[in-house]
Amino acid sequence: MANTSSRMLRLLSLLQTHRYWPGLELADRLEVSVRTLRRDVERLRELGYPVEAHRGVDGGYQLAAGAALPPLVLDDDEAVALAVGLQAAAQGGVAGVAEASVRALAKVVPVMPPRLRRRLEALRMVTVPASLADGGPAVEPGVLTAVAQACRDAERVEFGYTAGAGARTERHAEPFRLVPLDRRWYLVAYDLHRHDWRSFRLDRIDGVRATGIRFRPRELPADDAATFVRAGIEHAPRTHAVEVLIEAPARRVRDRVGRWGEVEEAGDERCLLRMNVESLDWPALVAGAVGAEFTVVAPPELRALVGEWGERFRRATAR
User: Fold this and answer.
1) Beta strands per DSSP E along 29-143
2) Whose CA is closest to 178, among 130, 116, 226?
3) Could you tell me the pTM of the whole model?
4) The CATH number of domain 2-63, selected from 1.10.10.10, 3.40.640.10, 3.40.50.150, 1.10.3720.10
5) What burial letters (b/e) apply to 52-61, b meaning 16+ CB within 10 Å?
């Protein structure tokens, strides 16, 4: 009886992933015959779980969509994984989630069987915490959960995306996987506007909208999603944080810069221009086009570029 009960809990746990399971695959995961699987499914139905059966060569099982289900059931590995995930979330990584994760841990851990609490404690003792959010940008919880659900359900989404230089565009994509890497969250997705794979930083995504359109996942041009994101980061143009002190009123500089930079008052007739750019040519052009004296505060590469341009212009006028 103990083996049957354990197997049924495992079966229910697999069905509660909200995916369709072919009968042969599900029986293989449970290490039972198809006949035994059918009996276990019938037992779940008797307990009130609405398990749908699909007949035929590709027949299988799934829980009825939208049905009111009895309480969620987790197997041992999933319960420990849930607690570990909550511990990681409690350290940060998603805006507003740390406190909620602590409250959830306070509810989950006390009801875990002693053997699982011992496993969790052993894991905690030998793990060195490394907060994802330490020094990284915060991600809106709504964005994270909406994108995660779209990845799980293979549903196309639309969202706004702000690039490093500040330009905002609307995207239509087929979400594939979420990747936490280098204190940031990334969405790997197929961009339907650009007809190519892309990785998007979640802290730059806003207004996620589900379209209700399902899709068959495409083949990723990499071994896995994390490898794809790393390759994109390694080959991405370097982003420069620019600061230029300009001897001109902030309003005058804002009119010239527009939305491509931030301008702060630094006195009656001076201001500080800040920009994040991939190419230093643009801030050099902007600073020169204002028609006022300016000083490059950072980065050193921009000072060198302005000096090089100055020498070239001087030689041009000398000729």
Assistant:
1) 51-54, 60-63
2) 226
3) 0.48
4) 1.10.10.10
5) eeeeeeeebb
Tokens 């059966």 sit on residue: 53
The sheet carrying 205-214 orders its strands as 196-201, 184-191, 168-181, 155-162, 205-214
- 273 SS3 class: strand
Just give the CATH number of 141-235.
Answer: 2.30.30
Q: Show the tokens assigned to 202.
A: 């979640």
End-to-end CA distance of the chain: 97
pLDDT in tens, 221-272: 998 888 998 888 766 665 788 999 999 999 999 888 877 788 999 988 999 9
Q: Helix (H, G, I), strand (E, B), or coil: what is residue 168?
A: strand
CATH of domain 240-318: 3.30.70.250
Q: Are 147 and 208 in contact (CB under 8 A)?
A: yes
Q: Cα separation of 193 and 201, whole Å?
A: 17
**Residue ranges per structural domain of the chain:** 2-63, 76-125, 141-235, 240-318
